[in-house]
Write a structure and sequence with these properties.
elongated; Ribosomal Protein S5, domain 2; Heat Shock Protein 90; 9-stranded mixed β-sheet; binds adenosine-5'-triphosphate; alpha+beta; 4 domains
Length: about 675
């Protein structure tokens, strides 16, 4: 028998180091991860066997067997699923295939605590075996391959693994963990059984252990002990969790199922479990995670939805079942109508899939509305009130078509701690969700025309009234001045940049609230929303500000007069700045600053132009409008100044700086300012 040595991919070594050094806090999860892999392997076999029944090799009773050997100090997990060929074992167990995961691992800091937290975001799968094992041996044979083409893979988790060819008559994978000395306590039937019950109860496959019974000692005076009978018994419920009735499922079981599904170490924030009947029949069990995965902003990231058809696993990451802006959702959809041989291509076109996708979307939006309605607003927490919604507590619309939803359970995963803690938790759940996933949800404004209003109601912003992401459009509307005609907002790179925008001055003076849109996606997203509940949305850095009746007649007149007397200066400014500014005009929005930049209605903001430029995207070649404040001393100085042109350039460049940009020629700007200061 020849044995080949292979090195782990560098990132795997890094991950393994972390697993063996940092993941001690909850060592028993290794069993969940390995059983979950075995169940996936069974799912894959069932799927492939749909087209080739011979793959069952006469043994269609799929099961997972967990055994232990006290003398040899081993635990074995044996499945008769799809198995692995030699090359698959080398690839799957020696490298990290997903490039997103690879990037993630290469970002690990070496700080064990921080890394262990991070690692919870994607789970370590197979490698979690090394939490308890000093050596792992994997023996596998792929379904359909001859017995002589089995593979044995062995590693002690440091740098290298060995691979050899073996005879393996039985299809599937057998993983033997040679336990470290400090993991001896897992060599106990009762303990293993209770871990399986805790973590793997709902796996649709039977998980079996060898029966044990009490035997008195043969010699008198000696203690008796548990002995194995040679019979296998199923120790889990072995029925897919989502097919059970909600009343038979505990909160812990829902949470454990989620952890199995997503490999997340944290409990989900909330979930929704429904059987949908009507023209399209399916069961949906959808979870909202508590933490964003590391690759959330990768637009190619697929939602963690598994598709089953009549309980047969069909595919992971079924992206046709959810719109991209809900890609953070994970869970299971089990359809009663789709054909078993459904492919990704067919999925894109199926009417049933469209109905499921719409049903999933409605359900998630409903769940979010529910969380949002429990969210304490700033005002409420100050007043000590808790139970009022934030204006978005309109009940979720009933599902359209002839679908009726029965057996519904929507659940917020609140720890079963004391009532006060649970209550506080509920009141902050939506804020927690929004901090993690708000930026993704916003993409829905541009993607999902049908649900645009529901999504808009779920958005939260900071504003001139609140530094936290807590102001909904409805909150804003409820505080609008009587004659105010628009919802005002400003886009900026950050909260501090937004707060410092000169364009806010007039609004501050008049006590008009302005929303701060500081996510990269905001400007694009908001461009798909012209109005909210009949009130138009207006950027205060675009077009003319027309505060309508909020500006009194006198102010308007004074501005017009100032513009008139200021005309000659404006003309000179226009000339001096001809290559930089589209136009120069007298402002209606500044109070304390000399000047600011605005763009014309319909043009992209300077901030978005900068973002696009940074991303190497083409940017429309437009120039901003410079608005000047004739009441400002610096601007008044212009008229008589001998250095008119320099001063004009400085005023323009300062407006660029206040807008979050950089002067086109920073050195020239510094020179001019220094000349003035000298
Ligand atoms: N019992 C098994 N039978 C067949 N293949 C397996 C088994 N266990 C692991 N594998 C293969 O090894 C791969 C790596 O497993 P691992 O648990 O590390 O990651 P994963 O399951 O792909 O990802 P994640 O755990 O993040 O979902 C699996 O994708 C699968 O192809």
């Amino acid at each position: 028998m020849t044995t080949q040595k292979h090195s782990f991919q560098a990132e795997v070594s890094q991950l393994l180091h972390l697993v063996t050094h940092s993941l001690y806090s909850n060592p028993e999860i290794f069993l969940r991860e390995l059983i979950s892999n075995a169940a996936d392997a069974a799912d894959k076999l069932r799927f492939e066997a749909l087209n080739d029944n011979a793959l069952y090799e006469g043994d269609g009773d799929l099961r997972i067997r967990v055994s232990f050997d006290e003398a040899a100090k081993t635990i074995t997990i044996d499945d008769n699923g799809i198995g692995m060929s030699e090359q698959e074992a080398i690839d799957n167990l020696g490298t990290i295939a997903k490039s997103g995961t690879r990037d993630f691992v290469s970002r690990l800091t070496g700080d064990q605590k921080a890394d262990a937290q991070l690692i919870g975001q994607f789970g370590v799968g197979f490698y979690s075996g090394f939490i308890v094992a000093e050596t792992i041996a994997v023996e596998s044979r792929r379904a359909g391959m001859p017995a002589s083409e089995g593979v044995r893979w062995v590693s002690n988790g440091t740098g290298e693994f060995e691979v050899s060819t073996i005879d393996k008559p039985q299809r599937g994978t057998r993983i033997t963990l040679h336990l470290r000395d400090d993991a001896d306590d897992f060599l106990n039937g009762w303990k293993l059984k209770s871990i399986i019950n805790k973590y793997s109860d709902h796996i649709s496959l039977p998980v079996q252990m060898e029966q044990e019974e009490w035997k008195e000692a043969e010699e008198e005076g000696q203690p008796g002990g548990m002995v194995k009978t040679g019979e296998w018994e199923t120790v889990n419920q072995a029925s897919a969790l989502w097919t059970r009735s909600k009343k038979d499922i505990t909160e812990e079981q829902y949470i454990e199922f989620y952890k199995n599904l997503s490999h997340d170490f944290e409990a989900p924030l909330a979930w929704s479990h429904n059987r949908v009947e009507g023209s399209t029949e399916y069961t949906q069990l959808l979870y909202l995670p508590a933490k964003a995965p590391f690759d959330l902003f990768n637009r190619d990231k697929k939602p963690g939805l598994k598709l089953y058809v009549k309980r047969v696993f069909i595919m992971n990451e079924a992206d046709a079942l959810l719109p991209s802006y809900l890609r953070f959702v994970s869970g299971v959809v089990d359809s009663a109508d789709l054909p078993l041989n459904v492919s990704r291509e067919i999925l894109q076109e199926s009417r049933d899939v469209r109905a499921i996708r719409e049903g999933n979307t409605r359900r998630i939006l409903g769940l979010l509305e529910d969380l949002a309605s429990k969210q304490r607003t700033d005002a409420q927490s100050q007043e000590g009130k808790i139970d009022i919604g934030t204006g978005d507590s309109t009940p979720a619309p009933e599902p359209v078509e002839s679908d009726s939803i029965t057996d519904v359970v929507d659940k917020n995963a609140t720890p079963a701690a004391d009532a006060a803690a649970t209550f506080a938790d509920e009141a902050t759940q939506y804020a927690r969700f929004y901090a993690e996933f708000g930026a993704v949800l916003k993409e829905g404004l541009g993607e999902d025309f049908t649900n645009r209003e529901r999504i808009a109601k779920l958005l939260r912003f900071a504003s001139t009234r609140s530094d936290t992401l807590s102001v909904s459009f409805a909150d804003y509307q409820s505080r609008m001045k009587e004659s105010q005609k628009a919802i005002y907002y400003i886009t900026a790179d950050s909260l501090s940049a937004a707060k410092g925008s000169p364009q806010l001055e007039l609004f501050r003076q008049k006590g008009i609230e302005v929303l701060f849109l500081t996510d990269r996606v905001d400007e694009w997203a908001i461009s798909h929303l012209d109005e909210f509940n009949g009130t138009p949305l207006q950027s205060i850095a675009k077009g003319a500000v027309d505060l309508g009746d909020l500006q009194d007649e006198e102010e308007r007149k004074a501005a017009e007069e100032a513009a008139e007397t200021f005309k000659p200066v404006l003309e000179r400014l226009k000339q001096a700045l001809a290559d930089k500014a589209e136009d120069v005009c007298v402002t209606t929005r500044l109070v304390d600053s000399p000047a600011c930049l605005v763009v014309k209605d319909g043009q992209i903001s300077n901030q978005l132009a900068r973002l696009l430029k940074q991303a190497g995207q083409p940017v429309p070649d437009t120039k901003p409008v410079l608005e000047v404040n004739p009441a400002h001393p610096l601007v008044q100085k212009l008229q008589a100044s001998e250095a008119f042109d320099d001063l004009a350039q400085i005023i323009f460049d300062q407006a660029v700086l206040a807008d979050g940009g950089l002067p086109a020629d920073p050195a020239a700007y510094v020179k001019r300012v220094n000349a003035l200061l000298a």
